[in-house]
Amino acid sequence: MVMQPDILPLTIHDLVITRGDRRVLDGLSLSLAPGEIYALLGGNGAGKSTTLFAILGFLARSSGTLSVAGTDPAEAPDAVRARVAYLPENVALYDHLSARENVDYFLKVAGTPRPRVDVEAAFESVGLAASAWDARAASFSKGMRQKTAIALALLRQAPLLLLDEPTSGLDPAAAADFHALLASLSARGVAVLMVTHDLLGAADTANRIGLIQAGRIAREWTASDTAPRFDLNALHDGFAGARAWAPA
Ligand SMILES: Nc1ncnc2c1ncn2[C@@H]1O[C@H](COP(=O)(O)OP(=O)(O)OP(=O)(O)O)[C@@H](O)[C@H]1O
């Protein structure tokens, strides 16, 4: 992965986004270093998805700054979307195409086709079984769809991965598989911003966990170098408080 050392994959400072008459994001600040895995948690309607859409350049901001690998999505949305890999809760693939054909197609559309050997190496590194490479995506589980999309992100050399509820609906083994995959992405220098309601999964995987409340990061926890990585009681109390606060 080629990255400029002094440019962070993501910097957000004092971001304000208004939807209707509400300041849905109200002074949100958040930066990610290469290889960092950040879990963003918060009650329903707290602004998690809004944060992801703002990073993708889909929402106008009232004030604040935001940059993805040094580029402002408000100024160059296409350049930012070319650098960010966004996985919605349910990854959409062309069902009538195989994993290989999907990846080839998206790379070609992006103007960055890659040789067969590279695509297979990416499938191997995300743990997509070889039997799936040429199978139609219609038969794929959520986990297989995610692996295909992450292989595409690796091939595109995206420095930032945005994940919306990646483990909802995954069985425990598939979720563990997914968390191991995130750790290997992190080791390659990919920064990951993961929106989730899975407190235990976040505590297993993330380097930092942030609680979004009233449109900003209200609390933040950093993983310890020694076990346990996070104080689960403190996390639980933090999130219980946020639920009690969340708007109806
Ligand atoms: N298109 C819209 N127009 C006006 N308000 C919106 C729009 N989309 C979302 N909102 C409001 O913005 C707030 C934040 O929504 P957002 O989807 O970011 O929350 P979230 O934290 O992702 O919630 P959830 O956990 O339920 O997915 C909510 O109050 C929501 O009602």
From TrEMBL:
PANTHER family: ABC TRANSPORTER ATP-BINDING PROTEIN ALBC-RELATED (PTHR42939). Keywords: ATP-binding, Nucleotide-binding, Transport. It comes from the Bacteria. Signal peptide: none annotated. Gene3D superfamilies: P-loop containing nucleotide triphosphate hydrolases. InterPro entries: AAA+_ATPase, ABC_transporter-like_ATP-bd, ABC_Transporter_VariousFunc, P-loop_NTPase. GO terms for molecular function: ATP binding; ATP hydrolysis activity. This is ABC-2 type transport system ATP-binding protein. Pfam families: ABC_tran. Residues 10-239 form the ABC transporter domain. The keyword Flavoprotein does not apply.
